[in-house]
Write a structure and sequence with these properties.
The chain contains 13 helices and 7 strands. α5 (115-123) runs parallel beside α7 and α7 packs parallel to α11. It has helices at 2-16, 32-35, 58-61, 88-101, 115-123, 136-139, 150-167, 181-188, 192-198, 204-207, 215-240, 251-254, 272-287, and strands spanning 21-23, 29-31, 52-56, 102-104, 129-133, 172-175, 245-247. A hairpin with a 5-residue loop joins β1 (21-23) and β2. It is of the alpha/beta class. The termini are far apart.
Length: 293
Amino acid sequence: MAAALAGLLLSLGAVTGCDAASDGPDGSRRTAQSARPSPSPTPVWDRSPDSIAAVGDSITRGFDACGVLADCPEVSWATGTDASVRSLAVQLLGPAGAAERSWNFARSGATAGDLAGQMTRAAEKKPDLVTVLAGANDACRATAEQMTPVAEFRSSFEKALAALRRASPKSQVYVASVPDLKRLWSTGRGHPLGRQVWKLGVCASMLADAEDDGPEARQRRAAVRQRVVDYNAALKDVCARDRRCRYDGGAVFGFHFTREQLSRWDLFHPSRDGQQRLAEIAYRRVTAAEPPA
């Protein structure tokens, strides 16, 4: 009887021993169960998305890149199919994939307030990646006083992300910073044609009276530039709170467009060459192992 009981106890010890506590190499107590290595978590950011939707304004529509006062979406930095541009979609999906699995919902003249509607349409496609480039029109108003308030801009972007998340929660979002409008003024102000076109009302808050270097003009341009800086800070902050969103780290804002990279018709919107540069920036950010600091 005693021998049988001893055998039973030994048997129970063998069974429970797989979860029994033991001393670890540092003297701490651990179980065999807890000592097993945990599986590596799946990375949240997919560096090779298989479909792309674009939202935003005239820059993403390729406005004035191929002809005067006309959209040219085939040269869009985000979804264009023009071989000379090598859009983000072409680089990620290939030419055939870009034609079949990329969609451009941007609209010339759009502001941040239009993003929620565009996001809703984009979400219907359940894209792996959504690109966002908007904000220039919020700063480009008839006067600096009419610029979209920063709080309103932030709220609009938050609503846009919420609209996407409701319908397509796993879509990734690449957010390009708003370009430095003052730098665009500095690049084009010496071009006679550019100055004449700007008089028609192109981004008047920044570009009006292009040759005026008086204190009021300098103050106005500084105010517009600061508003763009504040917009970008809002984009960065809101994006940082979404684990599937990646901000470009200010790369587009910091890029210095040359005259050749601006439209020959308005010296403001990106040319084919400028669209190609935006595509290069986006590709590097989307495919990077880590987001920019």
